């Protein structure tokens, strides 16, 4: 991973690790799902086109966030999961013109699965005191995950209160990447947000 | 103060066949647990698609602020996942122990139909024993 040595930016840049090849890819999304930045350093396998890949990544993170908020064992849970999941998936689906067959299949599979259970369990007024499962939550509300690991990669995720999501895909042995993600966010704020020529919501050039 | 919050077992089509809650503050009702299980099944599959290299077998560990989720997928596609406190050690070996109990007390049960919800007393009792042993070992009580 390459980091600038900016002295006025806090927190300080992390010490470079010994081996050079740590990161595979990096994504930055805004709250509407637009991919502002995509960098790849090492990606031998590419299953989908870039556009579909971004949408799939955003969709996966969105639903994982809802899932973790729902599964949080230390707080009150919420119902009405599926309705918002379906509507948000249909927004993501409908917002593009070309949607590949794989992505459509996955999205419709999810929507159908969830809608089946939603129809079976119409929320009664009693369940409203438990709240809504899967209502698009404000960034930072509810328990959110910060990383997941598979046998071939580790994905680290950070969401800011403004809805900016930073994702780093690295090798599975990577440690906790929350500090480097904060550092990247600071870089984003310094160099992108404060740039007078940058329009928010467009990809970063 | 339980180290493990809950355990889910999903069959290969994503349907929930076993759910046990070990004392989390927000217990889920049946429908919610079904939804969560099928959602996890799909997330597991999508994460395989996003892998930068070949040979990905899905999410093994999900770390959140207040809990960790460990998942074990057998060769047949049955997924066992456990929600526990962040940083609980030895969850992978516990999942393998649970898998062994599953094969011994559920699959060898002649009255058990494949892919159906698990209703085997021996499995329940041995599972509680295994979790208790694990809890005692972890907390030293």
UniProtKB/TrEMBL annotation, chain A:
It is found in: Endoplasmic reticulum; Golgi apparatus, cis-Golgi network. One of its GO terms (biological process) is endoplasmic reticulum to Golgi vesicle-mediated transport. The keyword Endoplasmic reticulum applies. SUPFAM superfamilies: SNARE-like. GO terms for cellular component: endoplasmic reticulum; Golgi apparatus; TRAPP complex. The keyword Transmembrane does not apply. InterPro entries: Longin-like_dom_sf, TRAPPC. Keywords: Endoplasmic reticulum, ER-Golgi transport, Golgi apparatus, Transport. Part of the multisubunit transport protein particle (TRAPP) complex. Belongs to the TRAPP small subunits family. BET5 subfamily. This is Trafficking protein particle complex subunit. It comes from Dillenia turbinata.
Automatic annotation (TrEMBL), chain B:
It comes from the Eukaryota. GO terms for biological process: endoplasmic reticulum to Golgi vesicle-mediated transport. Keywords: Endoplasmic reticulum, ER-Golgi transport, Golgi apparatus, Transport. Its main location: endoplasmic reticulum. The keyword Transport applies. It is found in: Endoplasmic reticulum; Golgi apparatus, cis-Golgi network; Golgi apparatus. Pfam families: Sybindin (PF04099). Part of the multisubunit transport protein particle (TRAPP) complex. PANTHER family: TRAFFICKING PROTEIN PARTICLE COMPLEX SUBUNIT (PTHR23249), TRAFFICKING PROTEIN PARTICLE COMPLEX SUBUNIT 4 (PTHR23249:SF15). This is Trafficking protein particle complex subunit. It comes from Dillenia turbinata.
